[in-house]
Design brief:
By secondary structure, this protein is mostly beta strands. About 10% of the residues lie in helices and about 30% in strands. The longest helix is centred in the first third of the chain and has 15 residues, at about 80-95. The radius of gyration is 36 Å and the shape is elongated.
C-alpha cells in the first residue's frame, strides 16, 4: 500500500479511566487471572525490607495498544473540533496506531467539494503522533449531483486516502480493512439501505481468503469495516459467507464497525467479538452516554491470547503536564471564588425594585481570567439589563460590572422571588482555557421598611423541614455590641438529631442554641474560647412547646428551660465576632451556610441587649413585646415574600432560605 501517512514518535503515556457502560458477559480471553502472574523472584524484585506479603509481578509478554475512531460525518461542521480534540487526547495515550471505521468526510457531493473535506480530515488526522489507517464509508464514496462517474467517489478515495480494502501486520497480529459499499453487483447502485447493494464481490472475498491464509499463524486478526453487516435486516444475509471465512481462519479475535452512530456490543459469535462504535465528531443524539450515544474513541490493549477494549468519551483524557503548580493553585483559588457585591438595590414600599447591582471582580491568579455574570430569577416579573455581561480581568486587577434590575411591584406574596447570579469563570492558561464549574449564587436585596403584617387571627409559628429550611439575618443587620445580652425563643420539635442547631451565630465566635438529642446548650464565645451552659440531661420533648432563654451577664452564662435555670458557667471577656449571619433553624458553617438543621416549629425569636432574666425562675411570656433593648424580634406569624418581619425598633427582617413558613402552632 502506498500512503502518505506520517510516522512520528508518540509523546505521552497516560490515560484516565474511561466511563463505564452496561456490563456484559466477559468474552473469551478478555481478562487475565492474577493467579497466573509471576511471583516475587530475586532478579526482578529488590528490597532491603522483610515482608510476609508476596507481591506478584506483571507479565513480561509482548503487549501493544491501538485506538479506533468512530464516524466523523453526518453532523454539523463543528464536528471537526471533536475530531481534533480526540486526536490530542489519543496523542497522550501514545498508541501504536489508530484505526477508523469510515465516514471520514461529509461527502454526498462532487469532486471539488469532496477534495476540500478530504484535506480538512487528513489535516486533522495527520496531527496524530502515530500512523492512522482509513476505512471507507458511504459518506466517503457516495456521489450526488451532475456528472456521476462509474463507482462514484471510489477513485477519489483511492487517490487520496488509500485502497478500498487492504491488510497489514503488526507485532504478530494482522489488521484487515474491508469495503462494505461496493454496491449492487448488477446495476452498480450504492445504497446501504437495499439488500441487493450489500454484497461483497467475488474479487474482495477471494482477496480476503488469501489474507486469512497468509495470517494463519498470527496471534490475533482484527477486522474493520463501515457497516455492521452482521446485524442483518436491510443488510441481508451476504455477511454469512464472510463470517464462515473468518471462523474457519480460527484466529479472528474481533470485528469493528460504525455507521449507526451509537455504540453497541453485539457479543461473541463463534469466538469472534463484534463491536460497533458511535461517533468521533459525527451526528450524535446524545440520548445517554452510558447507553452508547456519545462521541468517543476506543482503546484496544493486545496481549497474546486476549485483548481488552475500553471506551474514552471525548473530553475525558487530560495531559498531566499541563497541570503545573500555577494551574493547580489557580484551580484552588477559583473554586470558592465569587464576585463581591459592592452595592445592591432595595425594595420599595409598593414591592417594586428599580436599581442596580455593582459587582467587583478581583483576579487572585497569575493569569487572566474571563468572567461571565448573568442575572436570573424564578419570578418572571424581573427584568434585567443587560441579562448577562462578561469581562477579562488581568492578574491582580479588579474590574467592576453593573447590572440593572427592575421589578414592577405588587404584594410581597409567595410568588415573589429574589434574583440570583449565575457565574462562569475561565482561567486563561498559557495554551488552553480552564473552565471552572458554573455557580449559582444568591443575591442580597434590601427589603427597605416593610409594613407590619396583619394580625393572622390565629396562633402561628414557622415550620422547618430539618433539611434545608432556615432564616438568615446578616451580621451587619444585628449590630449587637459587646457585653451582656439575652437570646430566647419557643420551639416545638418533631425530632432531635445527634447535632441540631436552633438559633446560631457560632463557628468559633458569637453565640447560639443547640438542642442535640433534646439536650439544650447555650454557647457564647468569650476570650477566644466557648463558654457553654449545658443541660446535664435531655430536657426537651418532641411534640411539646418549650421556651429557651440564654443569658450572658458579663461574668456568667446561664441557660433556662421553661423559665427554670438548668445550667450556668462562669465566663467573661470580649465576645468573638465574625462576619457571619445569625441563622434560625440551623447551625452556621464558616461560609455562612446552614448546617445541622432543626425539624419542627420555632416561634418568638428575641435577641436583646442586657439581662432580661435573673435568679432561678421566671414565667416565660408567649408573645414578648419589643422594646428599646430589642435587637431582633421575629413573631413568626407571617411571611412577606422572602422575608420575615422584624418587630424590633430596628426592623431588620430575616431572609427565608429553603421554604420555612407559617403554620398552625399546634
Amino acid at each position: 500500500m502506498k500512503s502518505s501517512i506520517r510516522l512520528p514518535l508518540c509523546l505521552l503515556l497516560v490515560a484516565p479511566l474511561a466511563a463505564q457502560g452496561p456490563t456484559t458477559t466477559t468474552p473469551r480471553g478478555h481478562t487475565h487471572d492474577r493467579d497466573d502472574l509471576p511471583v516475587v523472584d530475586g532478579e526482578r524484585f529488590l528490597t532491603s525490607r522483610t515482608s510476609s506479603v508476596d507481591l506478584p509481578l506483571p507479565s513480561q509478554e509482548d503487549t501493544f495498544v491501538f485506538a479506533i475512531f468512530g464516524d466523523r460525518t453526518g453532523g454539523p461542521a463543528e464536528g471537526v473540533k471533536v475530531l481534533a480534540q480526540a486526536v490530542g487526547e489519543v496523542n497522550l495515550v501514545e498508541p501504536d496506531l489508530v484505526m477508523t471505521v469510515g465516514d471520514l468526510v461529509q461527502g454526498y457531493n462532487q469532486t471539488a467539494e469532496w477534495l476540500v473535506q478530504m484535506r480538512e480530515y487528513r489535516g486533522i488526522m495527520n496531527e496524530l503522533d502515530c500512523p492512522w489507517f482509513p476505512v471507507a464509508g458511504n459518506h466517503d464514496v457516495y456521489w450526488r449531483g451532475q456528472g456521476r462517474p462509474e463507482n462514484e467517489h471510489d477513485g477519489n478515495y483511492e487517490a487520496h486516502f488509500g485502497p478500498l480494502w487492504y491488510a497489514f501486520s503488526h507485532k504478530d497480529c494482522w489488521f484487515i480493512v474491508l469495503y462494505s459499499d461496493e454496491g449492487n453487483p448488477v446495476t452498480g447502485e450504492k445504497n446501504f439501505g437495499k439488500e441487493d447493494s450489500n454484497r461483497m464481490s467475488p474479487e474482495q472475498l477471494e482477496w480476503l481468503s488469501g489474507v486469512l491464509a497468509q495470517a494463519s499463524d498470527a496471534n490475533h486478526i482484527f477486522v474493520f469495516l463501515h457497516h455492521p453487516r452482521w446485524q442483518g435486516g436491510r443488510y441481508g444475509d451476504d455477511w454469512e459467507k464472510v463470517h464462515k471465512e473468518l471462523v474457519a481462519a480460527g484466529n479472528v479475535t474481533a470485528i469493528f464497525a460504525g455507521h449507526i452512530h451509537r455504540m453497541v456490543y453485539d457479543g461473541q459469535r463463534d469466538g469472534i467479538e463484534h463491536f460497533v462504535l458511535a461517533t468521533t465528531g459525527g451526528a450524535q443524539s446524545g440520548f445517554a452516554d452510558g447507553a452508547g450515544y456519545l462521541h468517543h474513541w476506543n482503546l484496544v490493549t493486545v496481549r497474546p491470547g486476549r485483548i481488552s477494549v475500553s471506551t474514552f468519551p471525548v473530553g475525558v483524557a487530560m495531559d498531566p503536564r499541563t497541570v503545573t503548580p500555577e494551574v493547580s493553585d489557580a484551580g484552588r483559588r477559583l473554586a470558592g471564588w465569587r464576585p463581591v457585591v459592592a452595592s445592591h438595590p432595595a425594595v420599595r414600599s409598593d414591592g417594586g425594585v428599580d436599581g442596580s447591582y455593582v459587582f467587583e471582580l478581583q483576579n487572585p491568579t497569575q493569569r487572566p481570567i474571563e468572567v461571565q455574570l448573568q442575572l436570573a430569577s424564578d419570578d418572571s416579573r424581573w427584568f434585567f439589563l443587560p441579562d448577562h455581561a462578561h469581562v477579562t480581568v488581568e492578574p491582580g486587577q479588579t474590574s467592576k460590572l453593573e447590572l440593572m434590575t427592575l421589578h414592577g411591584g405588587g404584594p410581597l406574596d409567595a410568588s415573589f422571588r429574589l434574583p440570583r447570579l449565575e457565574v462562569q469563570v475561565d482561567y486563561l492558561a498559557q495554551d488552553y482555557r480552564l473552565s471552572m464549574p458554573a455557580r449559582d449564587l444568591p443575591l442580597p436585596l434590601s427589603p427597605g421598611l416593610l409594613p407590619a403584617p396583619a394580625d393572622p387571627g390565629q396562633e402561628l409559628a414557622f415550620a422547618f423541614d430539618g433539611r434545608r429550611d432556615h432564616l438568615r439575618v446578616e451580621h451587619a443587620d444585628l449590630e449587637l455590641p459587646d457585653g451582656p445580652f439575652t437570646l430566647e425563643c419557643w420551639l416545638r420539635a418533631d425530632s432531635f438529631g445527634e447535632r441540631t442547631g436552633l438559633v446560631n451565630k457560632t463557628e468559633s465566635s458569637g453565640f447560639g442554641f443547640f438542642v442535640n438529642d433534646g439536650k439544650p446548650t447555650f454557647l457564647v464565645h468569650l476570650g477566644g474560647a466557648y463558654v457553654g451552659a449545658d443541660a446535664s440531661e435531655p430536657l426537651l420533648e418532641t411534640d411539646r412547646w418549650h421556651h429557651l432563654a440564654g443569658v450572658f451577664d458579663g461574668s456568667e452564662v446561664r441557660l433556662y428551660v421553661d423559665g427554670v435555670q438548668v445550667a450556668r458557667a462562669p465566663g467573661s471577656g470580649t465576645r468573638t465576632q465574625r462576619d457571619l449571619p445569625l441563622l434560625v433553624g440551623a447551625d452556621v458553617d464558616r461560609d455562612g451556610r446552614g448546617t445541622s438543621h432543626f425539624e419542627g416549629h420555632i416561634d418568638e425569636v428575641h435577641l436583646s441587649l442586657g439581662v432580661r432574666y435573673e435568679g432561678e425562675r421566671f414565667t416565660p411570656v408567649r408573645h414578648p413585646a419589643g422594646d428599646a433593648r430589642s435587637i431582633l424580634l421575629l413573631h413568626m406569624n407571617a411571611a412577606q415574600g422572602p422575608w420575615v418581619y422584624d418587630s424590633s425598633p430596628r426592623h431588620r427582617p430575616a431572609l427565608r432560605i429553603g421554604n420555612p413558613g407559617p403554620a398552625l402552632a399546634r
